[in-house]
Amino acid sequence: MLKKILRTLAVIIVPFIGSMLIKFLYLSNKKEFHSPESIGDEPTIFACWHGDLLMFPYLYSHYRKVPHAKVLISSHFDGILISKTIKYFGLDTISGSSNRNASRALMQGIKTLKEGYDIGITPDGPKGPRHEVADGIIVMAQKTGAKIVLVEIKPAKYWQLPSWDKFTIPKPFGKINFYSTDLIDIGGMSLEDARILLKKGLSKHEC
Fold first, then answer.
1. Nearest to 78, CA basis, from 149, 14, 147
2. Please, is 56 exposed, middle or buried when counting C-beta atoms within 10 Å of its C-beta (0-12, 13-18, 19+)?
3. Does 15 sit behind a cis peptide bond, omega within 30 degrees of 0 on the bond before it?
4. Of 50, 55, 52, which is closest to residue 23 (Cα–Cα)?
5. How confident is the model at residue 78 (pLDDT cuts 50, 70, 90)?
6. Distance separating alpha carbons of residues 50 and 86, to the nearest angstrom
7. Cβ atoms of 30 and 120 closer than 8 Å
8. Which end of the chain has fewer surrounding CB within 10 Å, N or C?
9. CA 134, 64, 20, 174 torsion: positive or negative?
């Protein structure tokens, strides 16, 4: 009973505090965007490694002043907290992952793109292996014809958690570099060729 109460309180309190912390870290840092000026208006898949996820909403808002995206998030409890947190940035979620409810999440992702939404995805999430591209993003792009934007978010000063993804948290009063690619079309590529291309593109600016 106590565990249930604590979880309920966490779902109410943690996302709000988390969103305030993210905003503070963003505002207290200098920012530099190394990105194309425009990627057009077609539904797009935005991809970053799981460890770079914290500042993803700000890269997305660089392109979409009015958010119209759903992010693929784990259906575990930590995924619920992330889902509630990113709602403060105008982002909705799709519940599922490569480890849990994978087929349902994939079908929802395809449906979401066809409905005109952008998709945010961590190709190595939610539990790794770190920096390995799972099939979901490739299948989603090839089934819908959606293009992919690869995102790297690299703070000059940061804390790195001892988690499987080495989750990175920018320190305040430094500088954050946001990198993103032009639209990438993987239509017609084999799974392995697409996997190699995406992995290489997501690993150009390692911390």
1. 14
2. buried
3. no
4. 55
5. confident
6. 14
7. no
8. N
9. positive
Q: How many CB atoms lie within 10 A of CB 107?
A: 14
Is 148 within 8 Å of 201 (Cβ atoms)? no
- The pLDDT tens digits of the residues spanning 85-100 come to 999 999 999 976 555 5
**Tokens of residue 184, six digits:** 């990438």
Higher pLDDT: 19 or 126? It is 19
In 3D space, the residue among 119, 142, 125 whose CA is nearest the CA of residue 190 turns out to be: 142
Tokens of 21: 């912390």
Query: In this structure, is residue 207 part of a structural domain?
Result: no
Structure tokens that stand for 43 in this block: 């539904």
Domain span including residue 67: 2-201
Residue 207 pLDDT > 70 = no
3-state SS, residue 204: coil
First to last CA, the chain: 42
Task: Of 91, 102, 90, give the one whose Cα is nearest residue 126.
Answer: 102
User: Which distant-in-sequence residues (6+ apart) come within 8 Å of 196 by Cβ?
Assistant: none
- Total of domains in the chain: 1
pTM of the model: 0.93
Q: Which of 94, 113, 114 is nearest to 104 (CA)?
A: 94
118 closest CA partner among 178, 187, 183: 183
Q: Where are the alpha helices (DSSP H) in 89-190?
A: 102-114, 135-144
